[in-house]
Amino acid sequence: MLKIQPQFAQGIDTVQVLRNALQSAVELEHATLPAYLTALYSIKAGTNREAAAIIGSVSVQEMLHMTIAANILNAVGGHPVIDKPGFIPVYPGPLPMGVHEGLTISLGKLTRSLVYDVFMTIEEPEVPQDYPVKQPALAMFQQKATAAQEPGFATIGDFYQAISDAIGRMGDEIFTGDPSHQVVDNTWFPPDQLFPVTDVASAQRAIQVIVEQGEGTPKSPREADNEAALAHYYRLAQIVYARRLVKDPHEPLGWSYSGAPVGIDPAGIWNLYPNAKTVDYPPGSRARTVSQQFNTTYTALLTALHVTFNGEPERLRGAIGLMYELKLTADQLVAIPLPGTDYTAAPTFEYAPVNV
Asked: S-S: 22 plus which of 73, 104, 265, 299, CB 3.0-4.6 Å?
């Protein structure tokens, strides 16, 4: 389970401290996206469809969680700050808020080890359910043991619970934000997941969406209100254990990794240069040019989201369009071989504003 320094889950006793915590939540939800997207971009078109669908679906919901956190921050009179260099973590490096000391987030190609060691650690529930892995099982991977919580640390679940509790204590009077700033375009996310946050009840319900989509519920690997969707941790585990997690009446917990195969064909994965920076590509090379284009589009996306979350929610559609443009540029970048190596170029997710 992810652990954070305890001060981030304690002492939320004023509206300003609450706003700071929610800004941290926005940053945390974004911080995982470059790692997920790099792994997704490493999958060659038309291959590894099951793995691509799983990672793609998790990435989309991380965008939803970022939007929800921004909505709650707006609702309590705050202003999400996204369009700044420091909003982007340094990769490889830690997550914001000192999350899980020792966990390093890297940008690299899709492997089962990456999913197991990093992605499943990011999404791990406080008490993960130990569903059996049936044949074919991968001997190198074992179910994660439920670790005792380290003294002096809190979990991400504690962090969100502290925000929810603080909102409950402070009451509806803290909801001073302009309702017109709420992002609720249900073209992209259904109304039971993305809805206006206007009071204690809607804010706490929104927080519950974030937690349950990531962790599931204590009794099920599914999201509480979506029987068709597994929580992120169990969804990703299907890649590691090479089998779909399905209901299994022969098991005490009622589930096992015994469904349809979820394979990874190495021939369908680009061998991305790990943790690349644009300066790693020679000046004037196509890799550097396309990398710069990628970063310009990525920064434009952050700018568009900043504007969207700060009074122009109708700009969400334009931001989504930039996400598609980012994918098209990434597809060009990852196919560029790097001379003298076995690698291809990789996205670097660096801040690159356009000077006008």
From this structure: 73
